[in-house]
Design a protein that fits this description.
It is a single chain. Helix content is 38%, strand content 17%. By secondary structure, it is an alpha/beta fold. The protein folds into two domains: 17-319 and 407-416, 4-Layer Sandwich (Purple Acid Phosphatase, chain A, domain 2), CATH 3.60.21.10; 325-402, no CATH class. The strands form three sheets. It has a seven-stranded mixed beta sheet with strand order 6-7-8-9-10-12-11. A six-stranded mixed beta sheet has the order 3-2-1-13-14-15. The chain has a two-stranded antiparallel sheet with strand order 4-5. The radius of gyration is 21 Å and the shape is globular.
Length: 423
């Protein structure tokens, strides 16, 4: 267990079966953490080079990934597209405008898009442009401007709006509602964005009243928010609480007992699905989707019928004219994961021999690379790294201690839904 605790302490600093076609089924796509940076704010130069080096991202590749995704969605023709926050790199107005323009052809094709902000989208004091030798300030947007810009992305035809946040209720179809939680704390931003999230007490009261109404009418409700509502690995709430809403377990159980069955989230940049059953016996699924800004560039495509939600996970694997894209992006994430892990370990001043330190870093990096892709199972190389680290500490490694994947599966699963009937 001590191995597990050590690795969990650093993991977050390093990242971050389907149904057949049915004409009557509803197709729902999910994307998140696009971190779109407008080309007008990203020009070749020292500022952009420094930004890309520090983040492990390649802005040109990110633009191509988004274009490839949108081309795939144009072929898939989903009825609904959910965008669960961190739409922009760091809240730049120009990036919001650019992202909206990218999605308009999909809207015109008939896909109804719903968005919710992430911690990188609203009232960001240090929005930046990278167009010269040094990063410069870029115009950001306010809470009110977000709803104006995204009027046709859920806010304009909302069934109801929360009064203390950007949360809203929308109709997916006559039997299904979408409860969109704004879990961000942008009103508290001073010098930069606040990573942590919460559900405001008034927002929770508002949501519960809507869930009560849905229950009376026999309407199914899906949820979406940026921050996680459930833990996605052991001790996540202890070691990386900023990636869950405050009081996550209590809030999850309240919402599960009120009738919420599935919530779509992002923020942790990983493809992971987890579930939790309340003491009253009600189960809630948190479907977290990987980021489109870094490896493995994941997104979800789902089909819903009256009895099940069929979840299928896709990854952008190829870019035109760039056959080495996926391997290059994987190496960038691995490199920055290794650099950050070493930095954090050194900052703690842990009295570890060099060989032990390198072995621990290696385990952390390998686990992170598996977690972002989902359905993580230690391969022979991973098991060897674990055993080498354990042997350096003079102990035997129990591979089971390194199982991070809570049930159910992460990438291709069927979530049972209760049938809905109008009363």
């Amino acid at each position: 267990m001590r191995f597990l605790l050590l690795i969990l302490l650093f993991l977050s600093t390093c990242f971050v079966g389907c149904a057949s076609e049915d004409d009557n089924s509803l197709k729902i796509a999910v994307i998140t953490d696009v971190h779109f940076l407008s080309p007008q704010l990203a020009k070749e130069g020292e500022a952009l080079t420094a930004f890309e080096k520090s983040t492990g991202r390649n802005i040109a590749d990110q633009h191509k990934v988004l274009d490839q995704l949108l081309a795939d969605l144009a072929k898939e023709k989903p009825d609904i597209l959910l965008v669960t926050g961190d739409i922009t790199n760091h809240g730049e107005r120009q990036s919001h405008l650019g992202f909206i323009k990218k999605l308009q052809p999909l809207q015109k094709q008939g896909t109804h898009v719903f968005v919710i902000p992430g911690n990188h989208d609203v009232n960001i004091p240090d929005s930046r442009a990278y167009t010269g030798d040094k990063a410069t300030s870029a115009e950001n947007i306010s809470k009110e401007e977000f709803t104006e810009l995204y009027h046709s992305f859920g806010f304009g035809d909302a069934l109801d709006r929360d009064t203390v946040s950007l949360s809203y209720l929308a109709a997916i179809d006559e039997d299904t509602w979408l409860l969109c939680f704004d879990s961000n704390r942008y009103d508290e931003n001073t010098t930069t964005s606040i990573t942590a999230g919460r559900i405001h007490p008034q927002t929770m009261a508002w949501a519960l009243s809507l869930l009560d109404e849905a229950k009376e009418k026999g309407v199914r409700v899906f949820g979406m928010m940026h921050h996680g509502l459930l833990e996605h690995m052991p001790y996540q709430s202890a070691f990386f609480p900023d990636y869950l809403v405050d009081d996550w377990k209590e809030n999850a159980e309240i919402l599960a007992d009120a009738g919420l069955k599935v919530v779509f989230t992002g923020h942790f940049h990983s493809s992971d699905i987890t579930m939790h059953t309340s003491p009253a016996g009600n189960t809630l699924y948190d479907v977290e989707t990987a980021s489109l800004a870094q490896y493995p560039f994941g997104w979800r495509m789902m089909r819903m019928d009256d009895g099940n939600l069929y979840v299928e996970t896709h990854f952008v694997r190829d870019l035109p004219g760039n056959p080495g894209f996926r391997e290059e992006s994987r190496q960038r994430l691995e490199s920055i994961s290794r650099r950050v892990a070493k930095s954090k370990l050194n900052a703690l001043g842990m009295p570890l021999p060099t060989a032990t330190m390198e072995a621990l870093v290696d385990v952390i990096v390998k686990l992170n690379m598996m977690h972002v892709c989902g359905d993580e199972k230690p391969d022979p190389e991973m098991e060897l790294a674990i055993r080498m680290f354990a042997s350096l500490l003079g102990d035997e490694a129990e591979i089971e201690e390194f199982t991070f994947d809570f049930p159910p599966g992460d990438n291709n699963i069927v979530i049972p839904l209760e049938s809905v009937r109008k009363k």
